[in-house]
Amino acid sequence: MHRQVLLLLALCGGLVVAWAGASGNHSAAVASAPAATAPVKNLAASPVETTAVPATEAAAARQRLVISGAGDTNLDPNYIPAFRSEGYGYAFTGLQDLFTKDDLTVVNLECASSALGAEVPKEFNFNCDPAGLPVMKGAGVEVANLANNHSGDYGPAALVDTRANVVAAGLAPVGVGRDDAEAEAPALFTVKGWKIAVLGFGGVIPDPSWVAGAGRPGMADGDNTQRMVEAVKRAKAQADLVVVAIHWGVELDTTPRADDVERARAMIDAGADVIFGHHSHRLNPLDTIAGKPVAWGLGNFVWPRLSDAGATTAVAQVIVEPDGTITACLVPTFIESDGHPVVQVPYQGDCRW
Predict the structure, then answer these.
(1) What is the pTM of this model?
(2) Residue 40 falls within a domain, yes or no?
(3) 204, 110 contact by CB (below 8 A)
(4) Packed helices 258-270 and 225-236: angle between N→C axes, nearest 10 degrees
């Protein structure tokens, strides 16, 4: 077995965090990035347990809740030709039904998904087949974060159309919209007695024109801490739990940067309960801030297998008890072939192997 997987199995009695092999090649990788400056706690000894979410009159009706988060997901058949022969369901057949067994799943959809527009000038442009979106929904995904450095690859008309195609497939898009209000609006769910708000932010911005504004399509600005804080506060006023999906960091980093730690802290202070990060194409640790789980970087997910380091990934799972107590873990996963992530342990659920 791969060295990374063996290390994960050694940790499976507790919380699985913070593993990565030597850097491999990635087509869009930053060749040399300065070292991260933020310290990260080692939480490998046991699952993260937080203080309870404040009780309300509705608390008696709440049931146990499982929320999953996954990293960069790409259904572009030009980038992953295996989908032409295997079908889009191939992306999800190695997951032991994690997403159908949980209560809410959030992924980062790293592409446009539209027949409109034309490639904008940049090194890599991804266009996911809209036909793959209902397959993703059928596999148990409910939310697609579109606030990233590829959802605008074919221009603003394609971005808005991508959002519409995601909705048509039965998924909830977050992080982009026809204007800043729509881009910053949460997707709202009521599940097992819980009101849940999911927000999306993109801090890896190819060009300032990609940021949504008044009357301008684009993505919610993940570099503007104050706007993110305000969006989290608005979401918290509508929900018991706020989940944030955010595209941030630097490619190939395996630990968070100090500025992203500060952004996470500000959002948690504003009411965020869970943060799922992505972009670096490398798995980062699972941490807590003020008792709230933060998956700094969930790595590649539905992606080509370009190296062992890039193929080593995880699904973050957050379990919320009826009293609001939260535990979280990383379920070890490996991209065994292009577009085909496979869970590496017999997963029993609830962070148990």
Answers:
(1) 0.85
(2) no
(3) no
(4) 30
